[in-house]
Amino acid sequence: MIEFLQQLVNGLSQGAIYALIALGYTMVFGVLRFINFAHGDIYMIGAFAGFYSAPKLLALAGGGPSFAGAALVLVAAMALCAAAGVLIERVCYRPLRAQPRLTVLIAAIGVSLLLENGGQFAFGADPQAFPEIIADSAIDLPASWGEFSLLTITVGQVIVLGSTAVLLLALRAVVLHTRTGMAMRALSLNPLAASLMGVNTDAVVSFTFAVGSAMAGAAGILTAIQQPSIDPLMGINAGLKAFVAAVLGGIGNIPGAALGGVLIGILEALVVGYISPTYRDPIVFAVLIVVLLVRPSGLLGKPEREKV
Amino acid sequence: MLVSAVCLPGIFAAISAEPILVGEVASLTGASASFGQSSHEGTELAVAEINAAGGVLGRPILLITEDDQSQAGQPATIVRKLISQDKVVAVLGEVASSKSLEAAPICQQNKIPMITPASTNPKVTEVGDHIFRICFIDPFQGTVCSKFAREMGWKKVAVLTDVKQDYSVGLTECFMRDFTANGGEIVKEQKFSSGDKDFKPQLTSIKAARPDAVFVPGYYAEVPLIAKQARLLGIKIPFLGGDGWVGDSLLKVAGSALDGSFFSAHFSSEDQSPKVRNFVETFRAKYGGMPDDMAALGYDSAMILAAAIRAACTTDPAALRDAIAATKDHDGVTGRISLDERRNASKPAVILTIRDGGFHFVKKVEP
């Protein structure tokens, strides 16, 4: 029983990472109807932004691993990734927006390859040890919890889940309760009508890329806190899984991306823990196929639902 | 050596001081650069020492090193180039078994002897009679670890294998065979794939089985992450592994998570024999850092080749092949090396432990 619960905890913390990355896929799809395949690599950029900025930012926050230092690193990585996302959209996707969607899709694959290989060139292909920005340790659960006190929950896991929850709620508030959010929703419903109503399409698209990329950057840092070894190709697999999560939850749907991420994370943990890691990817993708056969628009994706 | 006295190197020196060309294929960049650079430094040091002492047969050795960038496909191309363009008399390398398996068929076809310093997979020397290795093979390492586990009094061991690596699968098989045959119990078998970063699911299931130790014959990229996550999950027992643990990033990523764990290796720089002390000193003088396993094996591979050229009195590949095959009781820095009829080395292994951010010698295990 404890083992099962532990696997759920493990899966949940990994799923939160997938959820954060999946948001970027789903938001860009909602607004522009295309898959930004370079999104997984933005997650890698986030981790490396943390890698290079952490020593200075930790010193700024009083040296040594600390919450304040970790928060600074997180914000710095998110800001850098937001800038990178906006830049990529401005330089590579915007000039192609009038072209068939396939053209942009291929451009996205090109950007992805550029970031992966450029990353190997700039950062080196060897895995790098991510600096300890916060002391990750197991939290002692009160003995009064009986059997449940045997569960291991780490500081890193709590931070990952907490940050993910905060970021998700913040995003939801932005989308539902701000003018920019309203513009995003308008754009996702009907781009032409939205622009005729005075919505600045370019600004909204830039904003969407900034927010989605910032989430991926946060995911990069949150992963590196728990798994302190980063490399330029780390975005490939995580990006692919997050994409599956976005499709599983219903691409274009924000709560769907979060749900999909968590489900994929938990499914992976259970398959690895109880069956074999060899079957992890086959089972994850088989589940995707089955869900799409039964519900082609994903778990939460409904044609009439608002999309972003 | 008696034979080399007969072939009068002085006369050779008088007629030709043309260098003897030796090829080396190593991963100087890319994912296994940590291994490749070390073995290259050891090889280079050996060649420098040989040449400083007058070379072999009165001729200096010229090492032609090519980088395979840790990429599949490269070793075959490189070895072809070394043999056909540079006309090397022998090839040293690669470290990784998968890359040696690419290079070996080319050497075998061209009847050029190849000595791999560190490929431990049995298949490498099975390619043909021109392929040699100076390290021990996976079955031996698995057995050494099992022997050590039994000496430590561990009765229940869990194994965590990298299913993407022949190396890891081979070590696990041999470990389990020897361990269970001697009354030990494997309480959990778990797997992962190279490149994985999250091991909590496997470790959770291992924790539930309550082993005395965990055998993880993985590589240095994953092992520290495994150890770190295990400590977080409250798994306090020691880890045990093979020579794949040796790499720069192991301790950097692991911090103190691997303290008190053990692994089998080829060499310890703490070995007090004069031969090793001398090697460590000259290595440090030349490169700054301490030599690791791969450096020591690279050094021994070049020394064994030089000894064979001396014994053969010629660089003719056929005679050279026979001379390498006849290597017996070579006093190397990684122990006393003899090559058996299958061209594998018979030699001792060392068990090292991790403490205070360094590797420390525990004991030597004879074959």
Radius of gyration of chain A: 19 Å
- Structural class by helix and strand composition of chain A: mainly alpha
Which H/E pattern describes the elements of chain B?
A: HHEHEHEHEHEHEHEHEHEHEHHHEEEEE
- Separation of the first and last Cα atoms of chain B: 26 Å
Report on the architecture of this protein.
The complex is a heterodimer of chains A (308) and B (367). In chain A, the strands form 2 sheets. In chain A, strands 1-4 form a two-stranded antiparallel sheet. Chain A is an all-alpha fold. Chain B has 2 domains: 212 residues, 3-Layer(aba) Sandwich (Rossmann fold), CATH 3.40.50.2300; 127 residues, Rossmann fold. In chain B, helix 3 packs across helix 13 and helix 10 packs parallel to helix 11. The longest helix of chain B has 20 residues. Chain B is elongated, with a radius of gyration of 21 Å. Chain B starts with a helix and ends with a strand. The N terminus of chain B is likely disordered. At the A-B interface, helix 1, strand 1 and helix 10 of A face strand 7, helix 9, helix 10 and helix 11 of B.
Question: Would you summarize the structure shown here?
Answer:
By secondary structure, chain A is mostly helical. Helix content of chain A is 72%, strand content 3%. Chain A has helices spanning 2-32, 39-60, 67-93, 101-123, 155-177, 179-189, 191-196, 201-226, 234-249, 254-274, 280-294, and strands at 128-129, 138-139, 153-154, 229-230.
List the keywords.
heterodimer, A: 308 residues, mainly alpha, two-stranded antiparallel ribbon, 72% helix, globular, B: 367 residues, alpha/beta, Rossmann fold, 2 domains, five-stranded parallel β-sheet, 14 helices, 15 strands, 43% helix, 20% strand, disordered N terminus
Ordered list of secondary-structure elements with their pairings:
The complex is a heterodimer of chains A (about 300) and B (about 375).
Chain A: H1 2-32, H2 39-60, H3 67-93, H4 101-123, E1 128-129, E2 138-139, E3 153-154, H5 155-177, H6 179-189, H7 191-196, H8 201-226, E4 229-230, H9 234-249, H10 254-274, H11 280-294
Antiparallel strand pairs in A: 1-4, 2-3
Chain B: H1 2-6, H2 9-15, E1 20-26, H3 33-52, E2 61-67, H4 74-84, E3 90-93, H5 97-109, E4 114-116, H6 123-126, E5 131-133, H7 138-151, E6 156-162, H8 166-181, E7 185-192, H9 200-208, E8 213-215, H10 223-232, E9 239-241, H11 248-254, E10 262-265, H12 274-287, H13 293-312, H14 317-325, E11 330-332, E12 335-339, E13 345-346, E14 349-355, E15 358-365
Parallel strand pairs in B: 1-2, 1-3, 3-4, 4-5, 6-7, 6-8, 8-9, 9-10
Antiparallel strand pairs in B: 10-14, 11-12, 12-13, 14-15
Helix pairs in contact in B: 3-13, 4-5, 7-8, 10-11, 13-14
